[in-house]
Amino acid sequence: MSSCLLLLFLGLASRGSSGLDIPPHDAVARVARFVANQCTWASMATISTHHPVQGQPFSNAFSISDGPPGHGTGVPYLYLTRMEVSVQDLQVNPQASLSLSLAQTDYCTQQGFDPQSPLCAHIILSGSVLEVNDTAEVEFAQKWLFWRHPEMKDWPSDHGWFFAKFNITKVWVLDYFGGVKTITPDEYFKATPYRKHLHSV
Ligand SMILES: *[C@@H]1O[C@H](CO)[C@@H](O)[C@H](O)[C@H]1NC(C)=O
Ligand SMILES: *[C@@H]1O[C@H](CO)[C@@H](O)[C@H](O)[C@H]1NC(C)=O
User: Fold this and answer.
1) Beta-bridge partner residues of 47
2) Of 3, 30, 88, 160, which one is least surrounded by beta carbons within 10 A?
3) Which H or E element spans position 125?
C-alpha cells in the first residue's frame, strides 16, 4: 500500500510541480511560458545604485506570480516596497533582468538535471519593472501573488507595498543543447504552454 503511494508520488514528481508535462524543447515559446508559470520566485538583476557597486549588476530573489497554475498570463507580477534595496535601483533605472529556472521545482532533481544544464529548462527575461496602475490588473496581481505567497498579506502595512509587473522586451530560453534561443514578447504571449499534447518522441 505505502509502496504504491510512493510510486504514484514519484510518477507525478517527474513532471512539473503541478503534475503537468513540460512542452517539447523545440516548442521554445511554450517552454518559456511553462517555466514562467511554474516558478514561484525569480532572481532579478538590477543596475546597482548602492555603494560600493554603483553601476554594477545586482541580483536578488523576488516572489512572482503570472496567474493561476495552468493558466498563467506570462506576465511576472511582483509585490514591492521602495524601502527594498533592488527597488531603489529600479527607481533610478527600471531596466532589469529576471532569471527563472525549473531548478526550483522538483522536475530537475527528479530527472537528474543539474541546474546549469540546459535540460533543466531556464529562461532569462530582459525588460523593465513597471508599477501596475490599472485597477483590474492590480486586483489580478494581488489575487494570484497572495494565492501563491500567502504570507504577503501580513507583510508590514507601513512599508508602502505596491504591485508591479515585469514588462518583457526579450525572452532568452535554455531548454536544450545547442545554445540559447530567443523569442519575441509576441511569440511568448501567443504560446499556449499547457495545451494537451501527445508525448513527443
Ligand atoms: C504607472 O504609472 C507610473 C507613474 O505615472 C508610470 O511610470 C508607469 O509606467 C505606469 N505603469 C504602467 C504599467 O503603465
Ligand atoms: C514594454 O515592452 C514592450 C515590448 O513588449 C516595449 O515595446 C515597450 O517599450 C516596453 N515599455 C516600457 C515602458 O519599457
Assistant:
1) 57
2) 3
3) strand 122-131
106-133 confidence digits (pLDDT tens): 999 999 999 999 999 999 999 999 999 9
Contacts of 124 (CB under 8 A, 6+ apart): 97, 98, 99, 100, 171, 172, 174
Ligand nearest to the CA of 184: 2
Q: How far is the CA of 134 from the centre of ligand 1 (A)?
A: 9
Distance from the CA of 130 to the center of ligand 2, in angstroms?
10
**150-166, pLDDT tens digit by residue?**
999 999 999 999 999 99
Query: What's the number of domains the chain is made of?
Result: 1
Predicted TM-score (pTM) of this structure: 0.88
Closest to 147 in 3D by CA, of 63, 21, 81, 60: 63
Residue nearest to atom 14 of ligand 2 (CA): 128
Residue 17 lies in a domain: no
CATH number of the domain that residue 178 is part of? 2.30.110.10
Q: Does the beta carbon of 109 sit less than 6 angstroms from any atom of ligand 2?
A: no
What is the domain range of residue 67? 23-190
Whether residue 96 lies inside any domain: the answer is yes
Q: Which ligand is nearest to the CA of 128?
A: 2
| 122 vs 81: CA distance, rounded Å | 27
Least confident of 1-10, 90-99, 125-134: 1-10
* Position 195 in a domain: no
Ligand lying closest to the C-alpha of residue 186? 2
> Of all protein residues, whose CA lies closest to atom 13 belonging to ligand 1?
132
Which residue among 167, 168, 188, 190 is best mutated to probe the pocket of ligand 2, counting the most ligand atoms within 8 A of its Cβ?
A: 167
